[in-house]
Amino acid sequence: MEDDAVAAQLTEQLPSDHILSFDSRMGTAQVAALPQPLDVRGDAMRSYRAGDVVYWSTEQALVIFLTDGFAVPDDGVLTRIGAVVDGMDQLVGCERDCRVHFGATSSSLGRGGG
C-alpha cells in the first residue's frame, strides 16, 4: 500500500494473517469485498495497469487489475491505493479463492482453487 493511513484502515479489517480472498472478474481483475468502507482520497482513475491495487468505493471492495485498460466508471469510484510487488503471475491464472497477503510495502500472492 502506498498510503500509510489507507494501509492502517485496511489492516484493521483484515484477518490476523492479513490475507483476503479474491475472485476473478472475467479475467481482467480480481475483486474482494471488504466488511467496512475505507476512507480513501485521491484522483479518480481514467485508466489502469496490470498490478494496480484499487479501492472500488461503490462496491466497498478491493480490485487488483490483471491487464492494462481504460474502461473505468465515469463517476470516479476507483482510486488507486497501491500495486502488486510480487506474484502477479500466480494471480492471473486464479479464478476463485485467490489468496492475497497485504503489507505496507509489498503484497504476496497465493493461489487458491482455480
Automatic annotation (TrEMBL):
InterPro entries: Cyclophilin-like (IPR041183), Cyclophilin-like_dom_sf (IPR029000). Gene3D superfamilies: 2.40.100.20. It comes from the Bacteria. Pfam families: Cyclophil_like2. Residues 1-101 form the Cyclophilin-like domain. This is Cyclophilin-like domain-containing protein.
